[in-house]
């Protein structure tokens, strides 16, 4: 009796998925500041929620707020021991962004180094963003 091998894999074997890119990354300064804010908060927070909203003279602005819970639709980014939760509507605008924290004599703020940013207004309060191009 002769056995014939087809050399193919069964159709039920799933194709390996390509790993998803991390939406954002944090600098050491941003991670340290998020850690400080998390520890000092009046109520328990799981991290910071980051998003983008329409408005301002350039069209959009970044949002950062305390996150008291992880929503099922949040994109959870864990970097340098802290969590940021990205609003699902903002993911394509924030893909590849580095979140930094800068403090000087006049102000202290989170800064977004975003490759999807087309322009910013003169005061620095709003930006124009385009969705990230994803190679398929």
UniProtKB/TrEMBL annotation:
<feature type="region of interest" description="Disordered">
    <location>
        <begin position="1"/>
        <end position="22"/>
    </location>
</feature>
<dbReference type="InterPro" id="IPR000361">
    <property type="entry name" value="ATAP_core_dom"/>
</dbReference>
<dbReference type="Pfam" id="PF01521">
    <property type="entry name" value="Fe-S_biosyn"/>
</dbReference>
<feature type="compositionally biased region" description="Polar residues">
    <location>
        <begin position="1"/>
        <end position="12"/>
    </location>
</feature>
<protein>
    <submittedName>
        <fullName>Iron-sulfur cluster assembly accessory protein</fullName>
    </submittedName>
</protein>
<feature type="domain" description="Core">
    <location>
        <begin position="24"/>
        <end position="125"/>
    </location>
</feature>
<dbReference type="InterPro" id="IPR035903">
    <property type="entry name" value="HesB-like_dom_sf"/>
</dbReference>
<dbReference type="InterPro" id="IPR016092">
    <property type="entry name" value="ATAP"/>
</dbReference>
<comment type="similarity">
    <text>Belongs to the HesB/IscA family.</text>
</comment>
<dbReference type="InterPro" id="IPR050322">
    <property type="entry name" value="Fe-S_cluster_asmbl/transfer"/>
</dbReference>
């Amino acid at each position: 009796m002769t056995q014939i091998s087809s050399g193919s894999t069964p159709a039920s074997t799933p194709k390996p998925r390509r790993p998803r890119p991390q939406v954002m990354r944090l600098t050491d300064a941003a991670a340290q500041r998020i850690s400080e804010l998390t520890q000092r908060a009046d109520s328990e927070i799981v991290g910071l929620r980051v998003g983008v909203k329409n408005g301002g003279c350039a069209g959009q602005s970044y949002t950062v707020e305390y996150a008291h819970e992880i929503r099922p639709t949040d994109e959870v980014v864990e970097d340098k021991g802290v969590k940021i939760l990205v609003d699902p509507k903002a993911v394509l605008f924030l893909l590849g962004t580095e979140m930094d924290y800068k403090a000087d004599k006049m102000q202290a703020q989170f800064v977004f180094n975003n490759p999807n940013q087309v322009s910013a207004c003169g005061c620095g309060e709003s930006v124009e963003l385009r969705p990230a191009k994803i190679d398929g």
